[in-house]
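sry for the spam today, last one i promise. struct tokens for design, 221 residues
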């Protein structure tokens, strides 16, 4: 019989990195260090703390989800961050991916359409000392005209096509990581901007909550 002892969060994180990330090809040492450092349980409601290091997405407020640790690792690695970059994230959600990015980049701007999620994320990020993060509430499909261009853009919600405003706000030579496809299944892409053109690499099949723009929001009402 196998007894599974409850692990303390630190050993749970070590095990998560070893089993769910390294074994599946997430090898960037800076990404692994960030995932070992950030306490994922802080980004979910208390009854879910015991599931925080499991190999899956978990529900958060406003009907949204915190991404599976492997997907967070994969997206972070695909961004190829050295520590100098200005990053735009669309879909703050719990703020977990934001916290990981704050360890890997110079500056992170993250946009979320649900104000309660942004507020909660701001609180935790402040406690964790993530000072290079700026959170905004609004429709992220329009990006953020203030700090353009961005060296990297990460979208953590799914859409059919790359939103044109985001593409415009990506620097030449920059990387956009985004899930593209319909509501039930999408593919995760790493898209490089080369002479203004998209150079795409498909990373894996995936399933994200939808990216809701102003138009689809009107349809919801
Ligand atoms: N990275 C987050 C994932 C959250 S799920 C985490 O790990 O917790 C995706 C988030 O995108 C949701 O919170 C959803 O509300 C948000 N979202 C969807 N459409 C958006 C839009 N147009 N602008 C900003 N945020 C959006």
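last one done:
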């Amino acid at each position: 019989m196998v007894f599974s002892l409850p692990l303390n969060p630190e050993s749970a994180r070590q095990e998560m990195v070893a089993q769910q990330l390294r074994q599946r090809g997430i090898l960037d040492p800076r990404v692994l260090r960030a995932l070992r450092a950030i306490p994922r349980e802080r980004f979910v409601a208390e009854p879910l703390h015991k599931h925080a290091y499991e190999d899956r997405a978990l529900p958060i407020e406003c009907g949204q989800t915190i991404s599976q640790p492997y997907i967070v690792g994969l997206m972070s690695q695909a961004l190829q961050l050295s520590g100098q970059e200005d990053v735009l994230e669309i879909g703050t959600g719990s703020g977990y991916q934001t916290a990981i990015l704050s360890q890997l980049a110079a500056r992170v701007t993250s946009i979320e359409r649900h104000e309660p999620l942004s507020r909660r994320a701001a609180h935790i990020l402040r406690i964790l000392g993530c000072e290079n993060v700026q959170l905004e509430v609004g429709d992220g499909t329009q990006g953020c005209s203030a700090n353009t261009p961005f060296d990297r853009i990460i979208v953590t919600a799914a859409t059919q096509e790359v939103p044109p405003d985001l593409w415009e706000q990506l620097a030449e030579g920059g990387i956009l990581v985004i899930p593209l496809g319909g509501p039930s299944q999408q593919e995760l892409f790493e898209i490089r901007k080369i002479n203004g053109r998209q150079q795409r690499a498909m990373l894996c099949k995936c399933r994200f909550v939808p990216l809701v723009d102003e138009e689809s929001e009107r349809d919801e009402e």
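The mean pLDDT is 94. ok im logging off now
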